[in-house]
Prior knowledge:
Strand order of the largest sheet: 3-2-1-4-5-6
Mean pLDDT: 95
Low-confidence stretches: none
Distance between the termini: 9 Å
Number of strands: 12
Oligomer: single chain
Radius of gyration: 21 Å
Order of helices and strands: EHEEEHEHEHEHEHEEHEHEHH
Amino acid sequence: MRRALNFWVVGGDLRQVKLAQFLVEDGHNVQTYAMEHRPNPGMLPGSDTMKGMDQADCVILPLPVTAEGGIINAALSDLRIPAEELLNELSPGQVVCAGRVTPQMRVLAEQKQLILRDYFEREELAVANAVPTAEGALQIAMEELPKTIYGLRVLVIGFGRIGKILAHRLRGMGAKVTVSARKYGDLAWIEAYGYEPEHTGQLTGWLSSYDLIVNTVPIRVLDFPQLLDLKEDCLVIDLASRPGGVNLKAASQLGVKVIWALSLPGKVAPATSGKIIRDTIYHILQELEI
Length: 290
């Protein structure tokens, strides 16, 4: 950034702690709130109240911004802050950046004349986040399987951002990689990259040879018929956001081991995730000419 700005970083987890640290290192004025249980609390300024938040050039809220009941997501705090209460503290025209903004919060922000931007919707963040997600899936596989990645027969379901990077990493480690997709254009690219292609809608009866299946598609793709095909020691990792892509009840009944690995970037690489969010927010502020 060209000049020092006044940021408030509110709630969240270790990603937001790292984000605040990076902003301080960049020379900005930073205040944190609702993260009193952060590691090394003396290393970052923290406020006990929301007083002064209305003077911030940008208020940064967590990813996801709210938990159940419209409460600001604050894993490192005992505070329960309704989103509406927090937005009431801000001034018209103030910039708020948040992740996975709900429709209700958008309405509130519009009513209060706030400039609300969802950094989770940004393509640059989605692409960058795919890297720690893919590497986190590899970490889980190496911890859970009694085999090396080398020589492993793997199916990656979905050829979006995460699927592309994961397939590339797996093949680089010597796995035998099959990738499934629904679009014929994606299937053509899968084959062009040298992976074995499968149609996601036609997996039933073709799943018995895999040691590892990683789903990246946020719709139900592995139901009872598909799970019934799996060999006894196959591991399934579901990277899809809610409601996920695996019938967990059916998997439990069949004895299939499924790990639903949500929010991997924040768990396996909070520093990298914090940097990704910082860079994305810088892009947003540049576009707003702040």
